[in-house]
Amino acid sequence: MLLGLLPLLPLLSAFLVFIFGRSERAVYRISVGFSVLTFLLTLLLLLSFLLDGGYSYLPFGFETLELRLDSLSLVMSLTIGFISLLVHVYSVRYMQDDAGYKRFFLLLDLMSFSLFITVLSGNLLLLLVGWHFIGVILYLLLGHETKNPSSGRYALWTFITHRFGDIPLLISILLLFYLYGSFDVEELSRLAVQDTENRILLELAGVFVVIAAFVKSAQFPFHIWLPYTMGGPTPVSALMHAGIVNAGGFLINRFAFVFYNSEVGLHLAFWVGLITAILGSTLMLIQNDIKKSLGYSTVGQMGYMIMECGLGAFALAVYHLIAHGIFKATLFMGSGSVIHQARKDPNIPEDEVYKFLVEREVPPPRLPWIVFAIITVSVPLAIVFLAHWVVGVDVFKYQGALLLLFFGWITGAQTIFSIYRLGTHGVYKLLLFVILSFSVVVLGYVVIGHSFEKFLYPNREFIERVYENANINPAVFEIQALILTLVIALGWLFVYYRSINRGGVLESLGEARVWLYTLLSRELYVQGFFSKLDKLLSSVATRINRLTRWV
Q1: What is the C-alpha to C-alpha distance for residues 337 and 145, in angstroms, rounded to an integer?
Q2: b/e string for 122-140 if b means 16 or more Cβ within 10 A?
Q3: 48-63 CB burial, b ≥16 within 10 A, e <16
Q4: Could you tell me the residue ranges of all domains in the chain?
Q5: Angle (CA) 37 324 73, round 5°
Q6: Distance CA 314, CA 308 (A)
Q7: 482 alpha carbon, distance to own chain's centre
Q8: Dihedrals phi, psi of 184, to nearest 5 degrees
Q9: pLDDT tens-digit map of 97-134
Q10: What is the pLDDT of residues 358-416, one digit of tens each?
């Protein structure tokens, strides 16, 4: 009974807002009140799930309308309920005096309903319906500012892009129905794991699931819709970047049974996720708009999430999407205050960071370069190894674990390297704080990630099989790790020699730097390509309409 109320509460809220929302006060009291009840219900379901220690189902009289409460849907429901409540409360004052106040809250409630239906569905057809309606309601929310042509244009882009993501998901569902004659998630999980004869069709189903995740989670080259939808209200941006764009990670985890006997989809997820992570993180650095910068930051983080799925670390990807969702929601809601404050007082405090980034004034470092280089390389590596040793994770058993270890080391090393470049006067104190903070973050990430894996996938044999399927040829893996290490090391050396030698040989790289900056500022011309494609399709549609006048 409680499980059935979870999606029905936001739906009932939308209905009551539509009927009784005659004033702003009535609208937000109904909508926020039901959001509080929904979040409290998710907490109650968590308690019930832990006490029962098992799965829970709620059939509504038809097999298609079956809801499923397992560890994955429970965790996702908690996240959706919490972030939805935050966005509802924030929107009360942010959307004040807006002409579409009632419509906005009604759509927020319908979005919560669609998200709950998607994550709780025990039937793939119901999941597909929820998946589709997420894109439809997102289009309506992004186009809320009807007087802004740009908002409507990119809202339509988003709608069309998400419809392309529905097609591969539908194909994968039909393939699974063709193989096993069922849409039930539990039955499909059991049959697909035992099936060793239909490897090719399972590989195809896995590839289509991953492609559907790419579209919803803004992976290259489908990423362009995300950073260009900043014209919508800030609460919508917070909800979209905190929850909706994370749906790709959920989808791969929901279809995890497909990857028990398939590998191609995992490899595709790793490489596309890696490219997207690098691209999004790079483009974020050259943006001069705070919300667009946060948008590309989300693209990069979604790349990491999909890459983790490609490495077989499904549970870690779920933890990543939850942590990123809560973090990015607060960032977007805080960005409104930052923009407002900057308009009132455009002056930037002239601290050490300002002098380094704007005036290029670098204080002399207090430590010799070679000493800091040793610290940069060795300390993060030791922290990452010790964190895994404390938890008892065997990092040398699977390639995916080694790559995650590698990225953890690079993150810590880059942080310390940036501190050295900053050249702050209190270098010892700052360095100590950085190392302590990094230790806490890594230990927490490893501990929570490992706990999530036990909670989401208690069957150790299943997750070990997925890790094995994510492996590639050992020689290719070693070459790949070597190339990544060399690229990063050369980047560090270039930055160091650039700081001590501003002329000479490095001047010959001037044109290359200009070319690279132009390429990145044009966002690899992907946006321009889609704009031209948009104009071409519009022109073709216009000509077809003219021809049909004579019919």
Answers
A1: 20
A2: bbbbbbbbbbbbbbebbbb
A3: ebeeeeeebebeeeee
A4: 178-334, 356-500, 501-551
A5: 50
A6: 7
A7: 28
A8: -70, 130
A9: 777 788 888 888 898 899 999 888 888 888 898 888 88
A10: 555 555 555 565 666 666 666 666 666 666 666 655 555 666 666 666 666 666 666 66
